[in-house]
Amino acid sequence: MDYDLSKLTIATVGSHTALQILHGAKKEGLRTAIIVRKDRYEFYRSFSHFIDSFIIVESWHEVASKEVESELLSLNAILIPHGSFVEYVGPENIMKMKVPMFGSKKILEWEKYQDKKMELLRKAGIRVPREFKDPEEVDTLVIVKLGGAKGGKGYFIASTPEEVREGLKRLGNPDNYIIQEYVIGVPAYYHYFNSKVYNRLEITGMDIRYESNVDGLRRLPPQYAQKVKPTFTVVGNIPLVLRESLLIKVYEYGKMFVEATRKYVGEEILGPFSLESIITDEGEIVVFEFSGRIVAGTNVYMNGGPYTYLYWDEPMSVGRRIAKEIRKARDKGMLERILT
Ligand code: AMP
After folding, report:
1. Residue 129 C-alpha to ligand 1 middle, in angstroms?
2. Is residue 189 part of a domain?
3. Could you tell me the maximum CA-CA distance found in the chain, to the nearest angstrom?
4. Tens of pLDDT along the chain (340 residues)?
5. Does the beta carbon of 144 sit less than 6 angstroms from any atom of ligand 1?
């Protein structure tokens, strides 16, 4: 990598967790750049006290273009992937980009397919919901989920083969979907950071997603709620702390996941990732999903959270934690080990 390491720039796409990532990078003394769509420029420009360079594009397709790529290379940029980045640019284009990216690229490919995703969790030995390969097998309450990080859009609940078939038909018979047992309990999403520099796995926080309309249904008397089909469009995130006794299992699952990526993906997951679960009334943690990069739920801790405080004794967002890892790796001469 022929970069001027004293002028590294942390770059990302203007959406999702971009503000947190760039604010954190500035706190760690690094330069920052944002790739931003023209219609969002004014909003992001109001944060120019921590954003040094703006790369303006007409549409998200341009993010992987030669022009943007050469601009990023001239800034000595390291790209930080996030959910919208992966969704807008697409894992195939990200794989081809010459700009170094923080963390693992291969995991983004696994993340794209719902069945591959669940296979990795199973291989890790993590408890997952029952899965139905064929709509005809459905004999309990299930959730049907579409591929990609679409924030729960289009997911639906069913309890019979007919309902599953009907629901899929309504969505134009997509082929990237899975049918999962709908686990009864409460949702809890864990944020981790796997550090090469400190050689440890950190729990950086956890959250609950606020989803429309499923989270609104409890506001209705049951006789009215019954008439409404639940949907799962994420609109925000709510902070959470867990009973300390449950943290041990959460940590163990994080470790098992890291080990599985090393073994089966062929590239150990680095930096932030998340496991998404339902906790049942027996305290069982059932993981139904993972994200192989920073999740939007970390935005509730832009000024640090209870768990990051335990590691750092000062406010530390995940965005800042990423920049710290990059800065420390650079100073120790091990930058290439955390980039792909
Ligand atoms: P996902 O896109 O997999 O994160 O799912 C979106 C939302 O659907 C989650 O935040 C949960 O509220 C709900 N959900 C997904 N899978 C399950 C499951 N197996 N059991 C119960 N709820 C689920």
Report:
1. 10
2. yes
3. 65
4. 789 999 999 999 999 999 999 999 999 999 999 999 999 999 999 999 999 999 999 999 899 999 999 999 999 999 999 998 888 888 888 888 999 999 999 998 888 888 899 999 999 999 999 999 999 999 999 999 987 546 677 889 999 999 999 999 998 988 888 999 999 999 999 999 999 999 999 999 999 999 999 999 999 999 999 999 999 888 999 999 999 999 999 999 999 999 999 999 999 999 999 999 999 999 999 999 999 999 999 999 999 999 999 999 999 999 999 999 999 999 999 999 999 9
5. no
All residues at 6 or more sequence positions from 199 whose CB lies less than 8 Å from its CB, including other chains: none
- 156: domain range? 131-181
* Among protein residues, the one whose CA lies closest to atom 19 of ligand 1: 182
Residue 236: CATH number of its domain: 3.30.470.20
Residues 135 and 18 in one domain: no
| Judgement on whether residues 35 and 63 belong to the same structural domain of the protein | yes
Q: How many CB atoms lie within 10 A of CB 141?
A: 12
Q: What CATH number has the domain bearing residue 47?
A: 3.40.50.20
Full DSSP string of 164-193: HHHHHHHTT--SSEEEEE---SEEEEEEEE
Is 132 near ligand 1, meaning CB less than 6 Å away?
Answer: no
Rg (Cα) of the chain, in Å, rounded?
A: 20
